[in-house]
Design a protein that fits this description.
Blueprint: H1 13-42, H2 47-54, H3 56-67, H4 69-83, H5 87-122, H6 127-142, H7 144-159, H8 164-186, H9 196-220, H10 236-268, H11 272-308, H12 312-339, H13 341-348, H14 353-367, H15 370-385, H16 389-411, H17 420-441
Helix pairs in contact: 1-8, 1-11, 2-6, 3-10, 4-5, 4-7, 4-10, 4-11, 5-6, 5-7, 6-9, 7-9, 8-9, 10-16, 11-12, 11-14, 11-15, 12-14, 12-15, 13-14, 14-17, 15-16, 15-17, 16-17
């Protein structure tokens, strides 16, 4: 067993927050860049190639969302046991979640591969891109086991406060993907040109390499983890607990993804120009969401460790500071977005002036409410870290399904608002849920959920 690293239950709270949040932010940015790299190289094959690749991403994201529960649960349980200095249970939780994720992902991968043509038919994919889309999607589905495994690896390490190793692996993996994408897509020397499928092969190879390296670290690396299959037996009570913890988080992410997908349909009814403005605005907003998610994950790990160490007061102080930092940081980003809305939109949208101004209007309506989104995400991180994943799910569903989606549908039907009803649904969905979440958060009940026995 390696020497125990400094616990997040000690030392400066602001320093611990920053130490976790910045590498997590870097990892999130690198991970999201995979799609940008694929889009860059595939885009040179033409519009049909872009469409063939784009169609699989929502499906892939939904599958990852539905099956990511064990990763969330693993991070929560590992953080609390690590805070309680129970390294034996840290390893026990990790190996149980790891093997369960491998089994689940193999089943999902096989079923998805088999149903791939049917999925494309259900999505209404046209014949001219069907063959390429199916080939690309099937390769991506083969890689689900590596994708799920690496997500779990990152979650487990985050639970013990180790966030730099995933950052380094993602950086190397993205660099390798940048090299392999054009090589597999266009071919070179003895390597044939695989076209659209080449982007999938590149992603499959880099994901597989990342997962293999990650799991080697879990078994043999210089971390708190020393996993072993010797004498392994499934701990069904623990797995049941992990499922109860993780399922609400999977539903939460899936519900958010589905609602945003349906909002695209609401925008589409106003025509191509509004849809284009909505698309670029959503892309710019997603870059800000990554910042909020970094604070969510950092706060979740910190709260989990402190609750495991029975330092409830410190858990509360940590979470309060996290919410404040998230609010301030994302408000400043929002002010920057408001001031520089036009150049930001023009960087992603080469279109008529009227369409550009729609996008600018969208960003300016939404941007000044970013701070509320950041604060709410940080509080949700506290709920997850303390094991209150049902509450986290409920507040998210209220935000997107009870508030945002109905608001967008109803208000956009008003002649005085039109498509701007969709724009206004975003700040409303940031401010109102933040207030609701804060109201329950202030009761302090989230700190007293009994999850582990140290």
């Amino acid at each position: 067993m390696s020497k125990t690293k400094t616990s997040l239950t000690e030392g400066s709270i602001p320093k611990n927050l920053i130490k976790l949040a910045l590498p997590i932010l870097g990892t999130n940015l690198l991970y999201s860049s995979y799609q940008l790299v694929d889009a860059f190289w595939v885009g040179r094959l033409g519009a049909n190639a872009v469409a063939a690749v784009s169609i699989s991403y929502p499906v892939n994201f939904l599958l990852i969302s539905l099956s990511s529960g064990f990763a969330f649960a693993g991070a929560i349980l590992v953080a609390q046991y690590y805070g309680a200095k129970n390294i034996k249970m840290v390893n026990h939780v990790a190996i149980q979640c790891l093997l369960m994720v491998i089994m689940v992902s193999l089943v999902i991968s096989a079923v998805a591969y088999w149903l791939s043509p049917d999925i494309l038919y259900w999505l209404g994919v046209e014949d001219e891109i069907f063959k390429e889309a199916n080939l690309f999607q099937r390769v991506i589905f083969i890689g689900l086991v590596f994708n799920f495994g690496f997500i779990l690896f990152q979650s487990l390490l985050r639970g013990i406060g180790e966030v730099k190793i995933p950052l380094y692996i993602n950086a190397v993996s993205l660099g390798l993907n940048c090299v392999l994408d054009p090589l597999f897509i266009y071919g070179w020397g003895p390597i044939p040109a695989y076209g659209v499928a080449g982007a999938a092969y590149s992603t499959l190879f880099t994901l597989a390499l990342s997962a293999i390296v990650g799991h080697y670290i879990l078994f043999f690396g210089k971390t708190e983890f020393r996993l072993s299959l010797k004498g392994f037996k499934f701990d069904f009570p623990l797995l049941k607990k992990a499922f109860k913890l993780g399922a609400p988080s999977s539903i939460e992410i899936s519900a958010r993804a589905l609602a945003l997908t349906l909002l695209t349909g609401v925008a589409a009814k106003f025509g191509t120009e509004v849809l284009a403005a909505y698309g670029v605005g959503s892309r710019l907003i997603s870059m800000v969401v990554i910042v909020g998610l970094a604070m969510l994950k950092a706060n979740s790990a910190l709260v989990g460790q402190n609750i495991g160490a029975k330092q409830l007061e410190r858990a509360g102080k940590t979470s309060n500071l996290s919410a404040l930092i998230a609010f301030a940081t994302m408000t400043l980003i929002g002010i920057g977005y408001f001031i520089f809305a036009e150049p930001l939109v023009r960087a992603f949208l080469d279109a008529d002036e009227s369409v550009v101004q729609m996008g600018v209007n969208f960003i300016r309506i939404v941007s000044l409410a970013f701070g509320f989104m950041g604060a709410q995400l940080s509080m949700v991180g506290a709920f997850r870290g303390s094991g209150n994943t049902v509450e986290s799910m409920i507040f998210t569903i209220i935000g997107v399904w009870v508030i945002q989606f109905p608001f967008a549908v109803i208000v956009s039907d008003f002649e005085s608002f039109g498509h701007r009803g969709i724009w206004w649904s975003f700040p409303v969905a940031y401010v109102v849920p933040a207030i609701i979440t804060f109201t329950w958060y202030q009761t302090g009940k989230w700190k007293h959920k009994k999850l582990i026995h140290s």
